[in-house]
Amino acid sequence: MQPVISIDGLTKTYASGHQALKQVDLEISKGEIFALLGPNGAGKTTLISTICGIVTPSTGTVLVDGHNIQSDYRKARERIGLVPQELTTDAFETVWATVTFSRGLFGRAPNPAFIEQTLRDLSLWDKKDAKLMTLSGGMKRRVMIAKALSHEPDILFLDEPTAGVDVELRRDMWALVRGLRERGVTIILTTHYIEEAEEMADRVGVILNGELILVEDKTKLMKKLGKKTLTLNLQDPMQAVPTELAEWKVTLKADGNELEYVFDANAERTGVPSLLRAVSDLGIGFKDLNTAQSSLEDIFVSLVHRDKPARPSTGEGAAS
Q1: Which residues pair with 36 in a beta bridge?
Q2: DSSP H or E segment with residue 84
Q3: Which residue in 38, 211, 272, 273 has the most C-beta neighbors within 10 A?
């Protein structure tokens, strides 16, 4: 399948000498939700801004649906909707006017029915005649999304879309994103809320110090890098871990009421059977046990804190 976004050898070095992007290679397929994760200053916004034509790359090429973002800017840009982090709106305009104006900027013919449906989808219809200055932060965020969708783009960039919004709006936006994906819209999401990526993304990219250190299918990533945790709920609290359990590196949790063992579920020998035998031999009673898979947040933290970042994986769509 032809990628809808193709990035090859992309770098960005500012006049100050700061290298914001380092040799980024990435392909994103039509209709997928791609989550870009990274700490503050990692290069997420610079990468998005470069793809959208806002920042000029130092080297490399970016194609949007086959159109070069520099030599064929207009064709590339009209396929993109961007919801930036900043809430930049004309305070004295009404919701209806600002969204309609955004559609016209891209040369699209007026379509009041589409604008109405967009505002309804974002729970903005009852605010259509309200001036933007009267809206709450969450409502302004919805307006920014409506503006980005006004010209019916094939690709939607959401740069920290739920920063500072309440849980209800966050869930509404998740539902909206899923609906857009069903219509074939490609969505690139940057977020600090790991649960957003875990909930919605098809693939995950991790960027660190301007380098895309990993691109992987979310499910495969969690299976490949995620650990499992075995928790034993003890019948009687313990003061310390017996020396006989040292080889498993178990830890005491919940004021001595739980024994926790972290293991690799994909390993040939997980150590779980032998640990349970050792616990039984020591006469340690437990009321219950359970296992839990590491979350995407656990994986992200472990990647970001590695001493030496790995090169991106060679999975489909990954940098090679």
Answers
A1: 190, 205
A2: none
A3: 38
Give yes or no for a contact between 181 and 187, defined as CB atoms under 8 angstroms apart.
Answer: yes
Q: Are residues 47 and 83 in the same domain?
A: yes
Residue 259 pairs in a beta bridge with 232, 252
Query: How does DSSP assign 235-284, residue by residue?
Result: SS--SS--GGGGGGT-EEETTTTEEEEEE-TTSS--SHHHHHHHHHHTT-
163 vs 5: CA distance, rounded Å: 25
Is the C-alpha dihedral spanning 87, 46, 1, 35 positive or negative?
A: negative
Integer Cα distance of 33 and 191 in angstroms: 13
Range of the domain at 192: 5-223+299-304
For 170-212, the pLDDT digits (tens) are 777 788 888 888 888 999 988 766 777 777 889 989 888 899 9
In a domain, 312, yes or no: no
Kindly report the pTM of this predicted structure. Answer: 0.72
Q: Which residues pair with 207 in a beta bridge?
A: 212
Same domain, 214 and 267: no
CB-based contact 241:278 (threshold 8 Å) = no
CA 285, 288, 294, 296: dihedral to nearest 10 degrees?
A: -150
Residue 153, helix vs strand vs coil? coil
- The more confident residue out of 90 and 215 is 215
User: How many secondary structure helices (H) and strands (E) does the chain include?
Assistant: 10, 14
Non-local CB neighbours of 286 within 8 Å, separated by 6+ positions: 232, 233, 234, 235, 259, 279
What's the CATH number where 269 sits? 3.30.70
Per the CB < 8 A criterion, the answer to whether 297 and 222 are in contact is: no
